[in-house]
Amino acid sequence: MNARKIPDIIIGRLPVYLRALQHMAEIGLKTTSSQELGENVGISAAQIRKDISQFGEFGKQGTGYSIEYLIDKLREILKVDRYWDVVVVGAGDMGHALVNYQGFSDRGFHIVAIFDNDKAKVGQNISKFNVEDTDTMIDRIKELGVKIAMLTVPAAAAQVVADQLVQAGVRAILNYAPISLNVPNNVKVQYIDPSTHLQRMTYYL
């Protein structure tokens, strides 16, 4: 399987399926159908079967899917069957929230450092971390071998910081700054802009 040939919209639905399956497992269910899973996530059974079949045949006609098996397979496909170290850049309100959020470790992600360029914030404690200076960020990320960063800096600083992250060897950036980033083709950027999502929802109100 070549992940590059799978449409990104399908990859984006897999974590939704995984979350629903994990909830089913937590309440004691052992098997599910594409119909039941679809009702849980608001996606048609046919679309779920089509999405999952891109990666192989994981269910049986008439018996559906083994929840535990499908969880394992989706975790393997998404490469969260291991822990990924992550750095946070930006020690403002969003940076604080991300570092203090307890849900990442359950999903395969482990925050290992937080950086800021504000000298007044450098050295402060957030959760179990000391805020580190972005002046040392490139060397520090290389030392840690981190490939994923969450970017929570102001829009005006985001591109400069993204360039530094790329230089440090980061290959995936979760960008909370309301600006599009220019990065090499081998670096994946995912954008999280709450205002954009709110504007999308108000269309329907």
Per-chain topology:
Layout: H1 8-26, E1 31-32, H2 34-41, H3 45-53, E2 59-60, E3 64-66, H4 67-77, E4 84-89, H5 93-100, E5 109-116, E6 125-126, E7 129-130, E8 132-133, H6 137-144, E9 148-151, H7 155-167, E10 172-175, E11 188-191, H8 194-202
Parallel strand pairs: 4-5, 4-9, 5-8, 9-10, 10-11
Antiparallel strand pairs: 1-3, 2-3, 6-7
Helix pairs in contact: 1-4, 2-3
Task: Give a short overview.
With 205 residues, this protein is of the alpha/beta class. It has helices spanning 8-26, 34-41, 45-53, 67-77, 93-100, 137-144, 155-167, 194-202, and strands at residues 31-32, 59-60, 64-66, 84-89, 109-116, 125-126, 129-130, 132-133, 148-151, 172-175, 188-191.
Structure description:
The chain is of the alpha/beta class. It folds into two domains: 3-77, Arc Repressor Mutant, subunit A (Orthogonal Bundle), CATH 1.10.10; 84-197, 3-Layer(aba) Sandwich (Rossmann fold), CATH 3.40.50.720. The protein is built from eight helices and eleven strands. The strands form three sheets. Strands 8-5-4-9-10-11 form a six-stranded parallel sheet, with helices on both faces. Helix 7 (155-167) links the parallel strand 9 (148-151) and strand 10 (172-175). Helix 1 (8-26) packs antiparallel against helix 4 (67-77) and helix 2 (34-41) packs across helix 3 (45-53). The longest helix is centred in the N-terminal third of the chain and has 19 residues, at 8-26. The radius of gyration is 19 Å and the shape is elongated. The mean pLDDT is 92.
